[in-house]
Structures are given as structure tokens and as C-alpha cells.
Design a protein that fits this description.
18 strands; Rossmann fold; binds zinc ion; elongated; about 50% helix; about 550 residues; four-stranded mixed β-sheet
């Protein structure tokens, strides 16, 4: 009679498939008593996966194997030891090393080629079971979908919520109204404006809404929302299948997806968030944009407007392909000084402009947002203009003094002319003398008047505050209205050309100069003059 121990294991989620721990224990105890041995210890891992080696009871067993706790050890099946054949071998080898006898499924395991063979067979059987289980869970998923129950794996698309299964209702999906509103907004904007996915993503990032995973909105999340069929009310399952990839491909790509036969595909209905029409419109636009942007050369929104702060040359856009013939490309604005030198084929370090080049989308979005936020915002604009007024007041005061001097000179000139004319008509002056003197005075007057106009133009025209307020309100109102009507690149560019004078770029700052007509009346008829406004905005703040 020998001392015997037993080891039993089931994992939590497979109680049904594996039987309960009780049935295993019952059977092993029976085997031990039938074989006429004494049961000395039971090792039980209840709720532990066979995929891992660090199970409490198994650990204890491996420790006890060094002491004399038992002579024999009973397992219900090889896959109870471990699911993996390699792991099974390790444990078996350990047990054999300490001279233990092993009984698997009622049969004694012998250290013979046949014994090894038998274990391998048992192991393979366990693998086979595993594969069968995977198939069963796919079948379970299919079964669910066939009944119209979403097989979500716990995740639902953004804008929906999952209601767990209850006694009288299966698991189902409902609309999360707050998030559904965000989805609708994304669809409306993409379908009805010229805002693309990148800009849309940026808008989402500065909005209050968070993506379902928390964190930051990404381009792919927005794209996923725009293409998800759930939003018009259908979730499609089994639309594609993974097959081994063939042909030329990057080494890490092992699979590719192919469309499944329609007969294999399944669809379930969920509450819709957008209309099918709107969804289709978005798909058409996605298709179009894919085509357009792949082929069209990149257009530069700010070409001709950006100037280098260091040498006054203009910054021009240029595009580089990520790789020859590839689709990915880099677009930058670069100081023309360097480009010209590059084209001419020489490039002396000391002659090169040290000003950086800047990623096109960064500066374009930055300038656009600055213009929309600063110029279309009456309060901000008023602050800018008041600042400008304080800055120029001293200089203007000096000009005004000069202007007064010129006015005095002009009055004197007029008086002299009058006196001359009086003398002549009284017959006290010879005609030729009179004409010569008069010509001189006329010339003097012309000179003075020209100076007067020049000075008047240099002085910043600052009407009284109430007039400024009115002008700004009219101006901002008109521009806002215009911005809301902009639908394409050309409109956006024309708008910037009309509103901006120049953008001066230096390493860390953009100086955006624009025109704000302060003299305009409500009628919009009179445009006295344009005062120049400038705004200094660090790039980092803009973008
Ligand atoms: Zn430069």
C-alpha cells in the first residue's frame, strides 16, 4: 500500500465544459481507494486557468514533491496538469525525478517511450479540446447575433450604451443621447462643410466631449465614427475574414482581410442616430476626399502672405514625399532665400537663412484660428486697437504739431498772395513782377499742401471711441457672416487675402498683420482710411 495524493483543477469560466471540481475530486478519490492506496493530500486549484504555471495548489504540490508527502499522484487528465504540452512535460519530469508514480485518467504513466507517447497523445487531445472550445465560443457569438442580440464583447460604438441581459430581456443596445448629439454634430459638419477629418479632429480635441476610451480624440476615432454603420441602425458581423497574406509585403504583415461571402454575413438592427441619407452623404464625401487628396498637389493657404522675419523674403510652401512614389507626404513653408540658393545650386552656410521651416498644417490652422478668434471677436479687436492707439499716440502728437505748423505756413502764404494782389490792383506793382512773385507763392503752396497730405496720411486715424465701437461691430459682423459662408479652399484664401496684410514668421512667433477699416459708417459707403492693426501671437499659443 502506497500513499497517494491527487491534483484537481477547473477554471472559472469553463465549469460546464470541464465538469465541476466536485466531480473530479469524487472520481480521483474513487480511483485511489480502488487501487488500494491511502489518500494523504488533495491539491485543488479551483478557478485557475491551465494556461499558467503559478497556481497555488500546483505550487504546493511541487514543493511537497521534495518531501515525502506521497508516493503517487493522481490526475483526472493531462490537461489538468497544464494546458500546454511543454508545461505538462516539465511537471511530469519533476515528479519523475523525485521518484513519484503518476496516474493520469486511471492509467499509470511510465517512463518508457510508450509512456511519453501516451502523454503526448493526451496532451494533443487537450489541444484539440481547446480548439473545439474556441469554435464553440464563435458558435455562441454567431448564435447570439442570429437572434438579433449584439455580440459586443462588452464594447459598444460611441453614442450607445449596453443594457445587460435580464430575466425577461436579452442584452441590448440603447442610445446615449448626450453622445449621440456629438455623433450627429460630427456627421453634419463633415457632410455639410468643407471641414475635413483633420480639422474635425482638432475641433473635437478642443470641445468638451471626450471619446469613449477617455483621453484625446484621434483622427482614427473620428474616421471610425464616420464609417460605422451602427449609426444608421445596422451592425454588420462577419463581413471580412482574415487570410494569410501573400506576395510582396512588409515582413510583419502576416494576414490580410478579404470580404466574406454575403451568405456568411449577418446584420442586426440597433437604434439609429443619423439618417441613412446623411450617412451615405458622408461616405460619398470620404470617397471623394480620398480621391482628391491622393492626386491633387497640396495647395498652400498662406502662399504669398508669410514673410521671413530675418531677411524679409517670403515663405513658400513645398511638399516632400515620405518615400518615392508613396502617398504620405510632408508639407512645409520654408524661407525662399534658402530655396532660391538651393535651386541656384550653391549653398554657403554663412549665407543661409537660419529661420526654421514650419509644418504647413500647423501654421495654416494656427493663422486661421487666430484670425477667426481675434478679428471676428469685437472685444479682442477693440483691445488691440486701443493698444495700437496708445503706442502711436506720441508719434502722432508730433505729426499733429508739424501739421499745425504747415497750416500756419499756408495761412501766411494766403495772406501774402492777398497782399500782392491788393498792391497790383492798386497799380503799385508792375505786371511781370506781380506774376513772378505769384508763381513763387503758388509753388510754395503746392509744396505745403503735398506735405500736409503726406502727414495726414501718416497719422493713425483714430476716430472717437464710440465710432470705433460701431465700426468694429459692423466689421466683425460682416466678416463673421462671410466666414460662415466659406465653403472651399478658394473662399478661405480670398478671405485671408482681404483681411490680412502679412504674416511675419520668426522661430517662435507669428506676427499677423491685418487691416481694420475704422472709418466705415453703418451705411458701409464711406471708407475713410484703413488703420493698420497688428497682433503678436506666439506660435505655441496658436497651435
Ligand atoms: Zn529667411
Amino acid at each position: 500500500m502506497k500513499t497517494a495524493a491527487l491534483y484537481a483543477r477547473v477554471s472559472t469560466d469553463m465549469q460546464k465544459e470541464e465538469g465541476t471540481i466536485k466531480s473530479q475530486l469524487f472520481e480521483l478519490r474513487q480511483q485511489i481507494s480502488r487501487d488500494g492506496h491511502t489518500l494523504t493530500k488533495e491539491y485543488v486549484d479551483d478557478g485557475w486557468s491551465g494556461g499558467r504555471m503559478d497556481r497555488p495548489a500546483l505550487d504546493q504540490l511541487r514543493q511537497d514533491v521534495r518531501a515525502n508527502v506521497f508516493d503517487m499522484i493522481y490526475f483526472h487528465a493531462a490537461d489538468r496538469i497544464a494546458r500546454d504540452i511543454e508545461y505538462q512535460r516539465i511537471i511530469i519530469a519533476e515528479l519523475l525525478k523525485y521518484g513519484k508514480q503518476i496516474v493520469i485518467n486511471g492509467k499509470e504513466y511510465e517512463q518508457t517511450p510508450e509512456g511519453k507517447m501516451m502523454l503526448t497523445m493526451l496532451g494533443l487531445f487537450a489541444e484539440y479540446e481547446k480548439a473545439k472550445f474556441a469554435e464553440r465560443s464563435v458558435r455562441g457569438r454567431r448564435h447570439k447575433v442570429r437572434q438579433g442580440i449584439p455580440a459586443t464583447g462588452g464594447n459598444v460604438p460611441y453614442g450607445y450604451a449596453l443594457v445587460s441581459k435580464t430575466d425577461n430581456k436579452p442584452q441590448h443596445i440603447i442610445v446615449n443621447e448626450e453622445r449621440a448629439a456629438v455623433v450627429r454634430w460630427i456627421y453634419e459638419i463633415y457632410a455639410n462643410t468643407e471641414i475635413g477629418i483633420n480639422e474635425l479632429t482638432r475641433q473635437m480635441q478642443i470641445s468638451q466631449a471626450l471619446p469613449s476610451h477617455g483621453g484625446r480624440w484621434s483622427r482614427s476615432t473620428v474616421h471610425f465614427i464616420l464609417t460605422n454603420t451602427a449609426y444608421y441602425g445596422e451592425i454588420h458581423y462577419y463581413t471580412v475574414r482574415r487570410v494569410p497574406a501573400t506576395g510582396s509585403r512588409p515582413r510583419h504583415v502576416k494576414f490580410k482581410t478579404v470580404e466574406r461571402d454575403p451568405s456568411e454575413q449577418m446584420t442586426i438592427s440597433v437604434p439609429s442616430i443619423v439618417s441613412r441619407e446623411l450617412w451615405n452623404k458622408v461616405q460619398a464625401k470620404l470617397e471623394r476626399n480620398k480621391r482628391v487628396y491622393r492626386n491633387a498637389p497640396r495647395k498652400y493657404l498662406l502662399s504669398g502672405l508669410v514673410q521671413c522675419a530675418r531677411d524679409g523674403k517670403s515663405y513658400t510652401g513645398y511638399t516632400q514625399l515620405w518615400e518615392p512614389g508613396g502617398a504620405a507626404r510632408y508639407s512645409h513653408y520654408q524661407c525662399n532665400h534658402n530655396r532660391k540658393m538651393h535651386e541656384a545650386g550653391y549653398s554657403l552656410e554663412k549665407d543661409r537663412c537660419t529661420n526654421k521651416s514650419i509644418v504647413a498644417s500647423r501654421i495654416e490652422v494656427g493663422v486661421w484660428l487666430a484670425v477667426v478668434n481675434e478679428i471676428l471677436n469685437p472685444a479682442r479687436l477693440k483691445t488691440h486697437i486701443e493698444l495700437l492707439r496708445t503706442r502711436t499716440r506720441e508719434r502722432d502728437d508730433e505729426y499733429r504739431k508739424k501739421l499745425k505748423g504747415i497750416e500756419r505756413e499756408l495761412r501766411r502764404n494766403q495772406e501774402q498772395k492777398q497782399r500782392l494782389l491788393d498792391l497790383y490792383t492798386d497799380g503799385n506793382k508792375a505786371r511781370d513782377m506781380f506774376e513772378r512773385k505769384m508763381l513763387n507763392l503758388d509753388e510754395e503752396e503746392r509744396g505745403l499742401r503735398q506735405k500736409q497730405v503726406e502727414l495726414a496720411n501718416t497719422i493713425t486715424l483714430v476716430p472717437d471711441p464710440s465710432h470705433i465701437r460701431k465700426s468694429i461691430a459692423v466689421y466683425c459682423g460682416k466678416l463673421s457672416e462671410r466666414v460662415s459662408r466659406i465653403v472651399d479652399f478658394a473662399g478661405k484664401r480670398q478671405f485671408l487675402l482681404d483681411v490680412l496684410d502679412s504674416i511675419i514668421f520668426d522661430d517662435d512667433a507669428l506676427l499677423i498683420r491685418g487691416f481694420v477699416p475704422l472709418g466705415i459708417q453703418d451705411s458701409g459707403q464711406e471708407r475713410a482710411r484703413r488703420a493698420r492693426d497688428s497682433m503678436r501671437c506666439p506660435v505655441g499659443e496658436l497651435i
